[in-house]
Amino acid sequence: MLSQVLALLIFVGIFALATLRKVHLGVIMFAAAAGVGIWLADMKLSEVIDGFPISILVLLVGVTYFFAIAQANGTVDRIIEAAIAKVGDNAFILPAVFFALTAGISAMGSPLAGLVMTPIGMPLAKKYGIDRMLMGLAIGCGLSAGGFAPTSLFGIVTYGTAHSVGIDLNPLVLFGVALGANLILLFAAYVMFGGFGLLRSQKTGGLGNAAMPRFSNRKPLPAHPFEREGLTERSRQAAQAGVQVLETVDVPVEPRAKMNATQLVTVLCMAGLVASVIALAVFDRNPDIGVLCFAFAAVMTLVDPKTGKTAVTKIDWSTVLMVGGIITFVGVLQKMGAVDMLGDAASQIGTPLIAALVICLIGGLVSAFASTTGMLAALVPLAIPLVASGDIAGWAVIAALGVCSSIVDVSPFSTVGATLVATVDEEERPRINQLLTRWGLSMVVVGPLLLVGALVVPTML
Length: 461
Description:
Elements (H helix, E strand, L loop, with lengths): L1 H20 L3 H15 L5 H5 L4 H19 L2 H13 L6 H13 L11 H10 L4 H16 L5 H12 L6 H22 L18 E3 L19 H8 L7 E3 L10 H22 L6 H15 L1 H8 L4 H19 L2 H10 L4 H16 L4 H11 L1 H4 L6 H13 L8 H8 L6 H32 L1
Helix pairs in contact: 1-2, 2-15, 4-9, 4-13, 4-14, 4-15, 5-6, 6-8, 7-8, 8-10, 9-18, 9-20, 10-20, 12-13, 13-14, 15-18, 17-18, 17-20, 17-22, 18-20, 20-22, 21-22
Organism: Paeniglutamicibacter kerguelensis
Pfam families: MatC_N (PF07158)
Keywords: Membrane, Transmembrane, Transmembrane helix
């Protein structure tokens, strides 16, 4: 009993230490997993290392490599330009379009990559008289929705971790839940921040002089608008995820050139990847998305070896190490019975439904201030005891927990929210900061009530 409690305290303490000292969570977590496993759990070092999630490593490396090639050869930029050009001057649908674009980019391996839409969307919102809060929430919700795609980090960590502990969670179901929840939130943002009023007051004028992104080698903005001395761990993750665009300039739109042969092949590979995942899932073949990404990436690399070589440096090794360290430590906790002890404690709450609600509340609250990916990797295994009785469906609890941990990220205490605040005009920042704080913290409560009610309750009937 004492050793289990001590191990759990070390686990929580490492999160706090890594946050305060701004060091890589995975490094400390993996080292601590070895120490706790050997000295407290009486495990061999080989047994501790066996807990490192190889399958999730393959997923993360394959996905980030595949989409890094698509970004390096300019295909992603071409897709964005074409989509924005189709919008015209319809102010009402602009937030919805940016939701879709951000979701698409976030689905390409790294959710935080969707932040590249922020310096484009915010100036366009001002140009067309759209409340910047509406545009910011559209981008934030798109990032959350796309992040749970089967090819993106939140989705990979959530369903990958669930599968590793024996919970059958379909990646497409998880994505559908995240997409549905964020569409509801987008609709609420339209209602609360004047979106439907845009139908009555359409502004004229094209996108010809709109602010477009200029890629630079500057550091990304700090993770908090008041933090100017250094970058937090989440900001470093954002930088490694490819978030390099936080500078805008006014440039005239030039006629778009046609896609070259490499970009056309990339589009075909992207379509092939999506089609393969859907087809295999429909036939219940449980597709290995990481292997599929490696296969299509191999084709793209052979077509253009230069971008293939460049993309290797863009693989998200930082996240691989972070997730690997956390899950390795959780494996030690499971081996020594600490997870079962938490399950017994959760059962004392009263009913599995209330326990599920509590763990979703914890996930949302902590994720509003800390790493969403870290929370997912840590809390998904700890939710196992809640579904052991069979009273509630495991997939429902895990899907609810995952989305609850993501929709709070628009709070200004996280990378997403801080970026939204930092990319509006200085005089608007106090209002946006205040509104995003209220929205983000309200999601700590609204999210669990909405998702537990919609997913978990029906499984109990």
